[in-house]
Amino acid sequence: MKKVETAYPxxxxxxxxxxxxxxxxxxxxxxxxxxxxQFAGESMGRILGLRKVPKDMLDYLVIGxxxxxxxxxxxxxxxxSCMGQRLPGHHLEQACATGLQAVVAAAAxxxxxxxxxxxxxxxxxxxxxxxxxxxxxxxxxxxFTISDVWDNFGFDPATGNAMIATAGAAARKYKIxxxxxxxxxxxxxxxxxxxxxxxxLDRVLVPLEILNLQGKVSGRxxxxxxxxxxxxxxxxxxxxLDTCVTSGTQTTLRTAxxxxx
Length: 261
Prior knowledge:
Helix content is 33%, strand content 12%. It is of the alpha/beta class. The protein has a 3-stranded parallel sheet with strand order 2-1-3, with helices on both faces.
């Protein structure tokens, strides 16, 4: 059997030390007014406790997020402080590849010998994303238009087109049929609900409580919201936004999964 060379032979992820929150709909959940960076740090501390991983074992922290959040200036040390630790670290973002690249960066940190135990925490909030006003000296009002995350979804700097246009171009280039995409999407949703009913997701997902300013519980995140069962017939009836891309399949065509944990 061919021997496989590993890029980071000193690095490993101890089995069972990972965890994730459920995915709520931001606008209609108790997370609507929450600082996602603070929530991520507090949640990581709770998950490590449940996994029986002492927080003081960590000597470095890699965090990943794409959408700006309050106090992002301080990145990893701020998230670590919300976990109750004082740790050095850095922030990483690469759009849809952020989670993977954060793990790779942590592995490289261990491989280099700079750290023995590195924590990885990724998080984001797409809906209710902040809006920014950017300086623009050429404009008479000295500021440019307000921008938010949706502007980025509509403009890929490499192509000048929206993200769904890239998906449509990929479908045409590789001759992917609409029926294949619909069937794959339907399968992924079926797999999600099978994993949910079997209890498999309970091994990864952790219910989390939200505290108000007084430190009292104001709500609980214990369910994925917005994920509904879908039929193949319903998918096939939807209008194409681009080649093979519909509102029901656009995530599947781009990532092959309706959710990532």
